[in-house]
């Protein structure tokens, strides 16, 4: 990779260009015609400059850059037809960044512009202090969704229950909801009259408890999340049949499984002022993670998931360092992304006690292409 160069853009000029780009008419043309000749072996293998404690950001960007259908959506220019021009700076900056990372021309690019536009809305991310990569991921997914969502006429959801809670965004779809959004259903039963009610919750990241201190499996974390819980004392529910507060049991299930499921392992244990990081060895399968025990029987269409990216957190609560392991769509090999450094790694090295976010997909990825007509 020594032949490739380091890209050092004039950030503020690019920010101006970005604003100009947003004022242009939508077009299905790829963003830059001169980018036809790229070296496929390097596509998607581009380091990210550390801008001062921005490894939390870089690790997340690398994982998103390995989601082929997401990358293709931006590379092909398809996103411009859905883009909300008033609210599209973050999505446009993301598109430019994905394009740079998939050119194959640079060893390393700077995420400065992306960081600046995110920082305009969330100033926390401009600080030169370490942030939580899970929070950053959720901000990015939310912003991309807000910029790219399309409202559809409300479909009649063919559910027999009238107790489903639905929020308006359920009818808004975007590339983010199509790839990452799942639905949880909470089945709540009053222990007095055994009346059942259901509550729906939308998720893009599932935060899993870690049930053991030294080692456990991802399946044990999932069992812990989906086990039946008692609702007593302050957590009692108001039962509509009994008309008063009652003890109840609640059990969560997946009502709609997303194509990509992201697990957040709750390593940062905060109870009041007591904080610590759990360094539990969590064994996670690389292939065929079976979510069917947690999915409603009716919706178990593609319950087997394969790992394609990991965000790692090394070190302790404050500070520490983030890296990413991502599977490269073209070579099908695993790479370690440590800011500007990229190195190939064996599958046997994927399992570490630093794993913090796990990205699984229930479908195989094809190499993202820029232009469907081409
Ligand atoms: Zn009741």
From TrEMBL:
Sorted UniProt keywords: Cell cycle, Cytoplasm, Cytoskeleton, Hydrolase, Nucleus
GO biological process: positive regulation of cytokine production; positive regulation of NLRP3 inflammasome complex assembly; protein deubiquitination; regulation of interleukin-1 beta production
Substrates-to-products reaction catalysed: Thiol-dependent hydrolysis of ester, thioester, amide, peptide and isopeptide bonds formed by the C-terminal Gly of ubiquitin (a 76-residue protein attached to proteins as an intracellular targeting signal)
InterPro entries in UniProt: Papain-like_cys_pep_sf (IPR038765), Peptidase_C19_UCH (IPR001394), Ub_carboxyl-term_hydrolase (IPR050185), USP (IPR028889), USP_CS (IPR018200)
Localisation per UniProt entry: Cytoplasm, Cytoskeleton, Microtubule organizing center, Centrosome; Nucleus
One MF term in the entry's GO annotations: cysteine-type deubiquitinase activity
Superkingdom of the organism of origin: Eukaryota
Family, as annotated: Belongs to the peptidase C19 family.
Cellular component terms (Gene Ontology): centrosome; nucleus
PANTHER family: INACTIVE UBIQUITIN CARBOXYL-TERMINAL HYDROLASE 50 (PTHR21646:SF11), UBIQUITIN CARBOXYL-TERMINAL HYDROLASE (PTHR21646)
Domain USP as annotated: residue spans: 46-363
EC number: 3.4.19.12
Stated role: Deubiquitinating enzyme that removes conjugated ubiquitin from specific proteins to regulate different cellular processes. Regulates the inflammasome signaling pathway by deubiquitinating 'Lys-63'-linked polyubiquitination of the PYCARD/ASC adapter protein. Regulates the ubiquitination and stability of the ACE2 protein. Acts as a negative regulator of the G2/M checkpoint pathway, by preventing serine/threonine kinase WEE1 degradation, thereby repressing entry into mitosis following activation of the G2/M DNA damage checkpoint.
Protein's name in the database: Ubiquitin carboxyl-terminal hydrolase 50
Protein's organism: Eublepharis macularius
